Structure formats: C-alpha cells, structure tokens
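Case study B.
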Amino acid sequence: MIFYLSGRLVDTNGAPGDAAIDLTDRGLTLGDGVFETMAVRGAQVTHLAAHLARLHRGLDVLGFEAPVDDGEIGHALEHVVQANAITEGVLRLTLTRGPAPRGLAGPEKPSPSLIITGATQDLDLGRPVAAIIATCTRRNEHSPLSRIKSLNYLDNILAVREARQQGADEALLLNGAGNLVSASAANLFAVIDGELVTPPASDGVLEGVMRAEVLRVLGGTERTLTPGDLARASEVFLTNSLSIRPLTKVDGVEIGTGPITEQAQKLVC
Amino acid sequence: MIFYLSGRLVDTNGAPGDAAIDLTDRGLTLGDGVFETMAVRGAQVTHLAAHLARLHRGLDVLGFEAPVDDGEIGHALEHVVQANAITEGVLRLTLTRGPAPRGLAGPEKPSPSLIITGATQDLDLGRPVAAIIATCTRRNEHSPLSRIKSLNYLDNILAVREARQQGADEALLLNGAGNLVSASAANLFAVIDGELVTPPASDGVLEGVMRAEVLRVLGGTERTLTPGDLARASEVFLTNSLSIRPLTKVDGVEIGTGPITEQAQKLVC
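Model:
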C-alpha cells in the first residue's frame, strides 16, 4: 500500500521505517487525535467538505490545528486514491497532536502527524444487521468526545466485541441516562408512528456525515430514543460513510424494514 | 534513548525505522491498549507486582493477552533501566492489540505490541498543587474504561488543558452523577472530620497503585465525595506512582495541609 505520512507519499514496500510513526506520538501514547473514514466511489472521495468540516470541529475541541490547509489535505487524499488505484474503497485520515515528551497537557507548539491510508474495498454494504444493546459499557454524553471522531474508540470496541461474542453483528450503545445513542460504528435511525427519528447530539451522538445527509434529504426529527422505542419502530436502520443497513434484529427481537430505509439506501449508491 | 519494542532493545540513535511502530497498530488507530507508568528509585522499578496486576486487569477488560509473561516483562523493564542508566526516573510500558486490518472488533488472534520507554527524571514531586474542577468534560462511571489505565486519555487531557488555560496545575474531574472522581493524572484523597476518604472505583476511579498503598498503610474509607465536601476538608492530596502532592487550592479557594498528607508523602521517599 502507498500512503501519506506528514507531507510525503510512502510505499510500505520501501524501507520498514518509512511506514511507521514515532513511539512518542501522542496519538499512540494517549489517543490524542482525530480521524475520518471516507468512502471512495468512482475513484472520487465522497462528501469531502463535510468530512473536513467535522475534522475541524474535532480539532477545535482538542485544541490543535492541522499541519496543512484543506486544499493540501484534499490533494493528499487524491494522491493516495491514485497511488493505490482505488476505484471503490475506503480512505482513513488520522491527525494526531504528534510526538511529544511526557506530560498530559501536551506541547504549546505541537507538530501534528497527518496519516492517510487507503485500500480498495467492496462498498456494497447494505446487508441487514442483527444487533444487541451493549451492557458492558455506555457512551458518555457529558464529554465533548462523544460528539467528535477522536482516537478514543475503546468503548465502541468493547461494545462490538460483546456483540460478536453473542453472535450479533453490531452493538447499540446507551448513554449514562440509559437512552439509545448509536451503534458502535454507525448512527441510528428509527421510523416510529411514520416519523423518521434519530437521537440528538446532546445524547452523546457522533454526528455522522451520512446521518446529516439522511436528515437533509429525507427530513426527520432529532429526539431522545429509549430502548423501548425500538419495539414500536416499523423500520430501523444504521448509517455511516460506507453504508446504510437495515437493522432487522435487536436482542433477538425481529424488526421490519420498509420504504424509508430503501429511500435512504439510495443516498449511498 | 534506548527502549524496548516487542522483543528487542532499540536505540533511537539507530536506523529511524527502528524507533517506530506500524501505522496500522490499533494503539494508534483506535487507542486500543493499556499502559503503566512506573517510578524508578535507586535504579529499581517500584511496585512492579502491583503495576503488572493492574496491567492484567486492563487486558482482561480489553480481551487480549501480553505477548510475553510477567518475568519477561520484568526483565525488559530492567534492561531499559540499565540501558539508559536510570537511577531516578520514569518507565512507561505500553501494550496495544497490535497491527490489524480495518474493523473495530479486532483480529481473533492479535499480535500485541509491547513498548517500554524510560528516562531519568527528578521525582521530588511533592510540591503543592492548585486545581480547578473541570467543566469541559466528565469521567464515565458507566464504562469499565474509567477503572483501567487505557490509551483513551483524551478526557483527562481536555481537563488538564482547561486547568492550564486558567493558570492552575491540575484539574479535578467529576463523573456523570456530578461527584468527584480524581485529578487528570492522580487519585484524590481528603481528610474530612479527621477521616481519610477517597472516592470508590464504582464512581469512575482508576485505582492507582499509590492509592492502594496509601489505603493499605494509612487506612481510610472509600466513599463518594461531592465538590462541597472539599470545603469541609482539613487536608486534600493527590497521589500517583510518581508523587504525593498536597492540593492547596481548588477553584481559587485555599485548602490547608497537615499531618496525614505528610505521613502519606513518606510512602514515596
């Protein structure tokens, strides 16, 4: 694979050290950074402006800036797409506060690391999902981290691992108040009494790029959802930048699918 | 610096790639790992058994194992102490789930990365601390991550950065219920009505090795503390593996210090 690392394209088949990051990078030592996952379709990065806007919202929370401007980031993404000849696939952009000596607060003038990796991948990911509601952990609606795409992904990892142990594909996460937030790697939509609804950011939701696109095109209401609301839903679906998938089972209980899910799925074709 | 990386000692003055970690390492991409920070005194690693026990409790939560046994980890730590001629200083052991392809759940058979870094550092860190109570974020007592030393350290980073912006040294964090948990990098003790108290793990506390040592030697009670309790405290102090420091100011209000803090401080001499 050919990837982009802080200013240059690097081939992992080159010298081993080229494909590596400093051991003191705060992305590694403290999870101090943000990332974006973007779909590539027709050799084009999709929803680039929305991804960059969210990246900057995350950086505002963490208090550091990207080492290059959005134009350069866009070029770097294109370079990785071209260098790896990706027609359909996935890009990941990671931005950390960079290498630093010991200390939690971080350096006053950081040297952020920008890493872009990409690979060809089949994005026909509309298949139905069976989920559990995670019991091992909850999202923290009291932290701004619940609303940015930071490198602190362990709660989501614990949740999806619980799901897999129970033979499910995905996990839905509750927040501290016991309300539904999202899946481990996707936003949650439900159709209840004919109305399309999704939990609001204030409940601890990472506002996905595809979530915004669904709300923009199909409309819908942001309001708190409880686990009990799922039993009343005529359709439930999960959205992320790569896919829109019907959620057809939660904790073993079947949920129907229907026309609004189908309409939403057209957004990723 | 000479450090230990997954089975070998490496000198950062060697080939650049030697001092680096794979870009696909889940420690970097998802914060998927744990760490320990240990004091070195008299060229010896302090409280090694307690640190290793906590490391394993963290690994149990994350669901992977160290690539080598405790004996080998101990030898590797000693090697780093000797190779860097550390008499007084700090070691950091980082253990990640290792390199992996895309996907949150992680590989069934991971290849964890073990990284040990160390440096000489003056550990005479008993100086008084001024803190704020962080308003930007809270700890998540509903997540097992609040009780292990994972690489997901961003809430603590946000809190200490808020403190520094306000001219304070440290931040105390509340949990979702609004109770006191700890400082950004230390446990919290208070002497109230003559009784030594510290918040219980169930409030979202990382159970520090020095916290356990203080409870073992000085006694004390684990119970929920509210911000209002600090106003009634005759002494407040912060403990971590490197230091025990009196907390003499919170949100601008002075707190006294006294004999129990002094007794505790003898534990790190």
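Chain B has a mean pLDDT of 94. The remaining cases will be described in the next quarterly update.
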